[in-house]
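Structure ticket #2291
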Amino acid sequence: MGRPHDLGNVSAYLQKKIKLEDYIGWLDANFDPSIAWHDLQWIRDF
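Resolution: structure written out below.
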């Protein structure tokens, strides 16, 4: 059935295998749920 899946682009950057669970943990630690689209409006105006 092939080898286990990993996040190839992230794995290549970090130079180690990254599983989906690792990535979800990183998102949980780094995602700010208080940010809304209107907070990012300045990017469109940049």
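Closing remark: Residues 7 and 22 are 10 Å apart (CA to CA).
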